[in-house]
Structure formats: C-alpha cells, structure tokens
C-alpha cells in the first residue's frame, strides 16, 4: 500500500492537527488509511488504496483547501545529494524559514503598531485625510499580517473546526478595524488602528517562539542525523576511502575515530577497546569491549581511544539510530494518549466557545452600567488576551521530550499513556531468570560420571530452548569426546521429570521436587547440597538410581543490586515472581539480603496464567496487588512473563537476543539490552515530565482565568479599558513563560547509573569496597578473609569480566597466594567474585 508524506505549514497546536486529520478522513478521491499528523515535525503521512500519478498532489491541494500549506516530501538524494534520506534537512529548513518569517512579521508589526500608537497618544491634531490614510494603511497591514488566520477561519466553516486561536484573533481584530473605521463617521467611537497591528505582531513573535521550541526538540530527537554523513571504509589492500553512509552495506569494514559516533550497527574488530554506551543503557563512563562484541549506532568512541575498526551488520535504514527515531515519530491514537494530553485536548475543545460566550456576556452586561465603548473594548480584550494554543502544544511537546530523554538512556516508552502510568507506579515486580539474572547458566559443580556425559547430552538435546537444559547440553557436549547426539526416545515413565530411553536404559533428569515426586531418593546428597552456593541443582538417574548431580548458576546482573536499592529508596515496593523452584528462589533471596537489597517477598513456582483465581500464577499475584490499590509494573523477558506484563499497569519487557517477541509486543515499555539501570532513569523522567505537564496546565488555566477576571471585572469596574494590543502582549508573555518551563524540563539532567563499583558494594559504609580494590589495586582487608590467610605484603590486582576462566575453587586461590607472591594478576570470574561463601571480599 503506497504511503505519502507531506510537509505542512501553518500548524500551531493540537487543534490544527485534529483539523487536518478530520479533513483527510473526508477526502473523497481515494480511501486514506493510517492518517498521522505530527505537530513536532509538522508533517503528515497517509496510506492510500489507489495509487495514481496525480493522487499525491491532489491530497496536497486538499490540505491547502482546509487552510494549511502542504508540500509532498520527496527523496532528498534527488534534490540535495545528501546521504541521509530521512527528509531531516528539508523539515529543518522549513522550520528555519517559518521562524525567520514570523520574526520579520513580528518586528514589522511592533514598529508599525508603535508608530500608530505614538501618533494617537501624542495629542497632535492631524488632518482628517492623513488620519484616513493611516487608517487604510493600518487596515491593509493588519490584513497582511493576519492573512493566515483569516484564511484558516474561512476554511474552518468547511471543516466545522472552530477551536483555534485564529478564530479569536480574526474576530477581535476584525471588530477593532470595523469600530476604528466607523469612528470616521461616528466620532464618539474609539479609533484603535494600532491594536490589531500589535495583536498580530505579538502573535507572530509568539509563533516564532513556539516554532523555535519545536525546531529544538526536532533536532534533539532526530537520531539518524547524529551519524556522520560520510564514513571511512577499508577496501581492498587496506585502502581507506570516504563513502556516503547510505552506500555502506553489511560486511563492509569501517573505522571510527576518537570522539566520533558509531554510525551503523556492527561487530567490533578491535581486539580490546572501550566504548561509551549512554544511548543504550545510560552509562556515561567508557565500557570495555573486546573483538566480536556488538556495536550499536549511536554509541560513541571515547576521546582516549584512537580508533575502532568494525564490520557493519545493518544498513543506515535498519540501524539502531533509525529504529529509535522511527519509534519516537510513531503517533499515539486516542486510546494511547496520556490522560493529561486528553485533558488538555478536551479543555481546548470547549475553550474557544466558552471564551466567545464570556466575551459576549461581559460585553452586554457592562453596556448596562458603562459606556458601550468600554463594553466593546472589554470584550475585544478578552478575545485577544486568552491563549488556548498552549493547551494543544505544550503537553505533546513535553511528552516527546520525555520519550526522547528515555530513549537516549536505553528505555522506550511505547506511548504517552505509558509515560504517565510510569509516574504513578508504587510496586515493581521482577521476573528472576533473564531479568534480574544475566539469563545464562553455567555448571559450577558436577558429580555425574564422565562416561554418562553422552547420555546427558542426548537427554537434553530436545530441551535446548530452556535456560538450564541449554547449559547442561553444552556442558555435556564439551565433556563428550564423540560430541554427536545419541538417539533417544522420550517417555512418561517418570512424568514429573525428563525421562528417555537411550541404548535400552532409562535416563532421568530433574530438580529436587521433580525427582522426589517421581519416587527418587535424593536424601543421600542433602549434606553436600547444603554446602553449595549454586542456585540450580539437577539430579541425573540411570535405571531408577541417581548417579550424580550438577550444580548450576545464573549470576545476578552486575547492576541488579544497585537497581533494587534505588527503587526502594524511591519508595517503591519490590517483589520477585518466578517460575523457579523454592530452593532456587530462596537462594537468590538470600543473596539479595546479604547485599542489602532485600525484596518485600519472592513468589516461586509460579505458572504464567490460569483461569483459577486462587492458582499460584504471575497474573494472579499482579491482580492481587491491583486489588489492594497498588500501581504495578511487571518487568520480564520470557514468553511466560507475557500474561503478567499485559495484566499490569505498566508492562516492561527486556530486549535481548533471548527475549520473547510476543512479550515485547504486549509491553508498554522496553528496556534496551545491556542494563537494568534505565528503569531508574525512566521512572525519574516520567515523574518529572508529568509534574512539568501539570505545572503548565495549571499555569495556562490560571492565566486564562485571571485574564478574564481582571479584564472583565477589575479594569472595567474602575472604568479603565485595556487596549487589546496589551491583551495580546500578555498572551505572548504567558506563552514564552510556559515554553521556558518546558525547556527547563528538557535541560534537567537525568539520573545516571552509578560507577560500576557501586553494583558490587555490599555495605555502603564500607571504606574498602571490592570495586575500589579493583580500580586502585589495593590489598584486600585481612579482616574480610576468614577462610584462608593472605599475606599483607601481597598486592593482588583483580579484574572484572575476565575472558579467561578462573582457577577452580578456593584451593586454586590458596595455591596462587602461596606460590605467586610476586603480585601477578589473578583473574576471578563472577562465580568466585560474588557467590562463593569462602571468598570474603566485600561485594
């Protein structure tokens, strides 16, 4: 289905976008679907069922008939020879032209209006002919400055949309001009030729401020334009050439220099380097990466890095920056708009008729007590001083600012409604595996005989889509010399566990509960199991007899501790809801308690969903929280989290290579892979954005209410008539103040992740944290190592995220301390770092 895009001139607020949308729905020439009008970019897009050579121009002409100027957007390569094809420059140039035009018109109006006002207030007697010429000249200038407003009002009778600021200005200036012209025949009428000129002068200056605010926001949310237009490409014989970004294809090798933005998605080819990943996870400090790791468009090369070589995997149209921009440009429909935005639009719907009614009512009422001239001036001043445009502009502008700030920090709000709901959340429920943990299990202890590995591999070959099954399969395969899967026939002999017949023998595997329900006796291993610190224990049996077990671990994400702590500091209750068994769930709960990040409760062995309201399911736990009046956010990644994410007030999905696409599609927000910290940032952004929108709505309502009361009651009661031009000035000042308040939110710094050390710190009061020892290569605190002696003279640098496996167990560490007193580096993996009880470093 063909899609047409148009550049629209003349939109100022949500009322204008509604006028265009409603008008396009009435288009008779062809059926238009997916009509989107974007106030920020001042563009419109439609899908058409009938693609004819002139249809695009006919739609543009129809928009012109509604009262706006429409221009079809074409490919910029054909017009500007610019590498990017996203019409960025054309939209930006249009905004600059509008700002320039509004400023020029405003300046002409202020100068001319001030001259006319000066002449009228000077008291100098002017010849009647000169006064008449001044009146005619002022009228023509007013019509010229207000041409767009008069045109929109004329077409509004066709669209039956009468809720715009243009109607108020057109009526007030027309009345002022008519009264001023009539004063030549009826000298008792006031002559106010300066007022309509100044009204439109302040109107144009106000529109220039609004356009500048939209231009700034458009520039900051145009992510694709952050990539450089030309890139250094390595060709044959390592020859470096400069190529346009849209000519780069997958598998091309490019280089990015110090301080530059990664322009496209790809794979790092530099052996060891670092990258700033703010756009993905909010981290501002460089993160270490190695050859083979993913790079995403929008990441930045640190100043201390000379260059990075990478292989491109996606084109410019498919890049991370393009996806982020397309996400932001998606428009909310009426069901997904924020409640505050709906409130503002409802106010705007009745605003103009209400102001008309008030102006007429006060004008008639005061004519009984004061002169008709004073009553007319009072009515005109009310029409010019009130300002409905801020209701239709400021709320969507702030929402877009907030969504852009969240995206820049690795969090995507799908709609404005999701943004507002995030500000109300008081309860956060986490899934466990793949959400709080990294989602990759590894075998940390195995007592299953090696000759059984081929059978373990065969048994798990059909369960490789499961976290534990995948880990056991790859472990068994690494221990199996033959490596090939043996043929197996799965059976229901032990229905609670996984069982199969291999080489005419029954082999069974399962956790403690599954094996006990299947009739196996696991008590023989109880003492040994209790001494382990692994989260997952699975037993392996042959012909009804357990021959050994494997202990597996899925480590917590490095930032999980800090995130839970910060959520609790923000006053939110934190829960874990997992399908894992009791043993695994309580192991993780204990680890969180040890690290001062205890959760309110942990629910284990939860099914995804059930029709039984009393069943132990994730959705039922969510519903119980909701029934108690809590606003609940559910955070997960797997398919079993989808029902709970859909049932919560705010469903948050974690994007990763293993995350479920259905879960992501049902969610209200997505955490981009790499870190949980964007959750904290997003909650802060949502809270600040909603507070800012409430402030602006309150300011707009207060200003308009006070304007009507002061002009209609106070001034008139003392017999003072406010020049309508000053009413327009007050409107301009109010618009500027509200846009300044919105800009204050944009410029407010977002909450950034703490330094990496904080994620591993056990005790905030501890002066010698694990992270500090890693960074500064300090000696460990002897009081923290109770299980084995460490000589005070030994300085041991410890490195995080070691690519090399550590020595096995504490015995290896002891041997190292006694045999390598020279202080050579000893690398310890995440298992020893945080989870082995005998390893007593803080963190």
Can you describe what's shown?
With 843 residues, the chain is an alpha+beta fold. The chain has 29 helices and 25 strands. The strands form five sheets. The protein has a seven-stranded mixed sheet, sandwiched between helices. A hairpin with a 2-residue loop joins β19 and β20. α1 (14-25) packs across α2, α11 (339-367) packs antiparallel against α12 and α12 (372-385) packs parallel to α26.
Features:
843 residues; alpha+beta; 29 helices; single chain; elongated; seven-stranded mixed β-sheet; six-stranded antiparallel β-sheet
Output the structural class.
alpha+beta
Outline type: elongated
Radius of gyration: 34 Å
| Average pLDDT level | 79
Strand order of the largest sheet: 13-25-24-23-14-21-22
First and last CA, distance = 57 Å
Helix content: 40-55%
* Stretches with pLDDT under 50, minimum 5 residues: 75-85, 757-843
The main β sheet shows up as: 7 strands, mixed
- What is the helix tally? 29
Task: Tell me the strand percentage band.
Answer: 5-15%
């Amino acid at each position: 289905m063909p899609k047409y895009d148009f550049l629209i001139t003349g939109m100022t607020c949500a009322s204008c976008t509604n006028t265009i949308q409603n008008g396009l729905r009435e288009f008779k020439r062809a059926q238009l679907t997916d009509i989107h009008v974007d106030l920020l970019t001042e563009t419109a897009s439609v899908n058409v069922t009938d693609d004819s050579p002139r249809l695009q121009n006919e739609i543009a002409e129809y928009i012109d008939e509604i009262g706006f100027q429409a221009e079809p957007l074409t490919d910029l390569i054909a017009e500007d020879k610019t590498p990017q094809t996203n019409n960025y420059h054309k939209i930006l140039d249009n905004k600059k032209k509008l700002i320039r035009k509004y400023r020029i018109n405003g300046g002409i109006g202020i100068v001319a209006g001030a001259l006319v006002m000066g002449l009228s207030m000077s008291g100098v007697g002017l010849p009647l002919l000169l006064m008449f010429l001044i009146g005619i000249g002022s009228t023509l200038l007013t019509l010229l400055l207000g041409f767009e407003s008069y045109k929109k009002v004329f077409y509004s009778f066709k669209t039956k949309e009468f809720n715009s600021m243009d109607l108020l200005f057109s009526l007030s200036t027309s009345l002022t001009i008519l009264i001023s012209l009539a004063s030549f025949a009826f000298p008792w009428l006031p002559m106010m030729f300066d007022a309509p000129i100044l009204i439109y002068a302040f109107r144009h200056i106000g529109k220039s401020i609004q356009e500048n605010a939209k231009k700034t926001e458009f520039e900051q949310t145009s992510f694709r334009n952050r990539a450089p237009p030309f890139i250094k490409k390595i060709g044959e014989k390592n020859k470096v050439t400069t190529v346009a970004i849209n000519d780069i294809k997958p598998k091309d090798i490019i280089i990015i220099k110090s301080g530059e933005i990664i322009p496209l998605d790809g794979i790092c080819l530099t052996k060891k380097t670092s990258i700033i990943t703010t756009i993905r996870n909010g981290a501002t400090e460089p993160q270490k990466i190695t050859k083979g790791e993913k790079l995403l468009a929008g990441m930045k090369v640190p100043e201390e890095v000379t260059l990075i070589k990478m292989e491109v995997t996606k084109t410019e149209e498919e890049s991370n920056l393009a996806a982020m921009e397309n996400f932001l440009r998606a428009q909310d429909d009426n069901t997904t708009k924020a409640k505050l935005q709906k409130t503002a639009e409802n106010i705007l719907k009745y605003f103009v008729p209400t102001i008309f009614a008030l102006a007429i009512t006060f004008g008639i009422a005061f004519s009984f007590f004061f002169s008709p001239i004073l009553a007319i001036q009072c009515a005109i001043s009310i029409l010019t001083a009130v300002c409905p445009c801020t209701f239709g502009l400021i709320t969507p502008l702030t929402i877009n600012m907030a969504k852009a700030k969240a995206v820049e920090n690795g969090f995507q709000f799908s709609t404005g409604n999701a943004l507002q709901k995030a500000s109300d959340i008081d309860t956060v429920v986490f899934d466990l595996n793949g959400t709080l943990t990294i989602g990759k299990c590894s075998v940390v202890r195995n007592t299953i005989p090696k000759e059984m590995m081929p059978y373990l591999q065969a048994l798990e070959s059909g369960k490789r889509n499961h976290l534990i099954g995948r880990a056991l399969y790859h472990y068994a395969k690494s221990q199996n010399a033959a490596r090939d899967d043996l043929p197996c026939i799965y059976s229901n002999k032990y229905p609670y566990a996984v069982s199969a017949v291999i080489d005419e023998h029954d082999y069974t595997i399962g956790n403690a509960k599954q094996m006990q329900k299947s009739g196996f006796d696991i008590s023989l291993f109880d003492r040994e199991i209790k001494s382990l610190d692994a989260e997952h224990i699975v037993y392996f049996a042959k012909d009804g007899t357990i021959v050994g077990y494997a202990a597996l671990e899925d480590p917590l994400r490095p930032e999980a501790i800090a995130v839970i702590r910060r959520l609790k500091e923000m006053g939110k209750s934190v829960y874990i809801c997992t399908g894992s068994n009791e043993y695994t769930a309580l192991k993780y709960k204990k680890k969180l308690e040890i690290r001062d990040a205890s959760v309110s409760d942990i629910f284990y062995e939860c099914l995804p969903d059930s029709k039984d309201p009393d069943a132990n399911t994730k959705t039922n736990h969510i519903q119980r929280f909701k029934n108690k009046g809590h606003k609940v956010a559910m955070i997960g990644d797997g398919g079993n989290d989808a029902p709970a994410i859909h049932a919560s007030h705010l469903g948050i999905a974690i994007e990763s290579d293993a995350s479920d696409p259905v879960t992501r599609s049902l969610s209200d927000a997505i955490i981009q892979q790499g870190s949980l910290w964007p959750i904290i940032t997003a909650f802060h952004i949502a809270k600040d954005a909603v507070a800012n929108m409430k402030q602006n709505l309150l300011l707009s309502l207060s200003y308009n209410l006070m304007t009507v009361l002061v002009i209609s009651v106070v001034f008139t009661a003392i017999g003072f008539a406010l020049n309508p031009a000053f009413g327009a000035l007050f409107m301009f000042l109010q618009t500027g103040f509200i846009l300044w308040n919105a800009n204050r939110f944009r410029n407010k710094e977002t909450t950034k992740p703490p330094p990496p050390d904080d994620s591993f710190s056990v005790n905030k009061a501890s002066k010698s944290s694990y992270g500090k020892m890693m960074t500064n290569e300090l000696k460990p605190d002897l009081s923290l190592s109770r299980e084995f002696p460490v000589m005070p003279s030994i300085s041991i640098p410890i490195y995080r995220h070691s690519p090399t496996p550590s020595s096995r167990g504490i015995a290896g560490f002891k041997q190292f301390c006694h045999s390598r007193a020279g202080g050579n580096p000893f690398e310890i993996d995440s298992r020893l770092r945080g989870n082995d009880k005998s390893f007593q470093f803080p963190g």
